[in-house]
Each structure stands twice: as C-alpha cells, then as structure tokens.
Amino acid sequence: MLDSMPSFWLVIYSIIGGIFLILVNASVKKRRLYLTVSKLFQYGRTVNQNEIIVELTVFNRGWLLEDEIEITLSRNFEYELIATTDNDIDLKKDKILIKRFPNNHSITIIIKVYNNDFSRDNIAKFTSNHASGQVVSGLSNMTSTGEGLFGIGFLATITIMAFVFFNPIQTSTQDNNSYSGAFKDKQFLDVAKKSGCLACHAATRKVVGPSWNDIFARYNGKEDASKELIQKVKVGGKGNWTKVTGGVPMPPYSPRVSDKNIAFLVNSILNINEE
C-alpha cells in the first residue's frame, strides 16, 4: 500500500503527524496544579469571635498524577482540619499534606483558622514533588490540558493512517457508557465526591451539614421537594438545618457543578430507598 502513495505526500503527512504528536506530548506533560480559597465563613454557632471557617479547593488540571502535595499556611495563625473530600489528607501545624492527587481531579478542604484575618495571601507555599502550584482567585484563572489539541492530534494521526493504508475507519455507534436503571450507590458517591459534597455530608451521620438519610426523612413525600432542593444546592443558603450545622451556611454549587449533576444528586437522595 505504501508503494501506491507518492513519496512527497507521505513525507508531508508524516511531518504533520509528527508536529501534532510533539504538541500533544508537551501538553500532556505540562503540570497544572491550582488552589483557590473558595469560601470564608465568619459567622455561626461553631465559629467564635476571631475565628473563621475556610474552604480550600485544590485542582489537578493536568494529565499526570501528583504526589506529596504540601500547602504551607501562615505561621501566624493556628489551624484545625474540619473536613475534606479525600481521606488521604493531613494537617500538621501550618502544613496541609496530600499524599496522592489523581489527574483531572479536585479536592475540597475545610479548615478552621483561629484568626479572622486569614486571606488568600496567607498561603505561603503550594508545591508537589514535581511542580509548584498556583494560588488563583477562581476557575477562570485556570488552564486545563489541551483536550482539543489532543483530539486534533489523534484525528490527524488517524487521517494520515487512512490515507497511507487506504483503509476505511470503522467506528462503533454503541454507547458503552450509557446509564439506566435505579439509583446506584457507586455512581452517586462518585458524582458526590467529584462535586465536593463529601466535605459536608455523609450517608448516615452529620459532618458539617445533615446526613443524606436526614435529608431524605425531612423531604420524603413533600410536594416539589426535588425542585426546592435543587434550587438550594444551586444558590446555597442557611437557616434550614441550623441545629445541625450551627449556622454554617450551604455554599452555592452552581455553576461549578452542572445542573444535570445537581439534579441527579438531589433525586438520588430523594429516592435513596428505592431498589
């Protein structure tokens, strides 16, 4: 088959493919580690004067696993670890330590600071074994690994192979990842973890907010319960579970969690006892 391809075009296609592969390789290897101070809570029954609850979110926007993450905070304050979305996190004096951090993943960390002057500027150092992270103000200041570039490179490589070997590309229309059926615990927990829900909620016990079982018990059979809860998750609020939370408000999760995932989480909780 290669003999039927003019050598000039074979060289051109090979050069194009090589350039794309180089760009894709560089994009994949670039590390993108970010940290945001998402929320500062100064009021509540569990927050005394001159204390503050801080929500930190760490993002690995690269395609490589990061390990030995270290977030060094100001030595001028004392800290207490309240909750996280990962069980492999530790707080030692002024250092938050994360053992392993998968690619395309985020971790939410809630700490209490015994000084209400804490701000983003009090994060002194943010590193992993392989990279220095960036402390940013929000999602708009982050860049992710070039998924589009990879797609173009992959398509270019397949196109070159098609031209070289004159083979039709066979594709399958079967969607092996489709989901149907009743609520599945694993899927629910995966979405809840990625969305940051586990920082404040658990299935059967109070963390910062009420358990999912308590939410189900309160709203089970209530008219428009799904619509009401979806709105609460989107915009946040306080006052509905004050005896449980001590006044710590529910932060807004829209738009950082999609409407589809919010609806899935809420409806899964409302139907948690279905088989």
Please tell me about this protein's structure.
With 275 residues, the protein is of the alpha+beta class. The protein has three domains: 2-29 and 145-165; 33-141, Immunoglobulin-like (Sandwich), CATH 2.60.40.1170; 185-270, Cytochrome c-like domain (Cytochrome Bc1 Complex, Chain D, domain 2). It contains seven helices and nine strands; from the N terminus they run αβββββββββαααααα. It has helices at 7-29, 147-165, 185-195, 212-219, 225-235, 242-245, 259-270, and strands at 33-41, 52-60, 66-73, 79-84, 89-92, 95-101, 105-113, 123-127, 134-136. A five-stranded mixed sheet has the order 4-7-2-1-9, with no helix packed on it. Strand 5 (89-92) and strand 6 form a beta hairpin. Helix 1 runs antiparallel to helix 2 (147-165), helix 3 (185-195) packs across helix 7 (259-270) and helix 5 crosses helix 7 (259-270). It is flat.
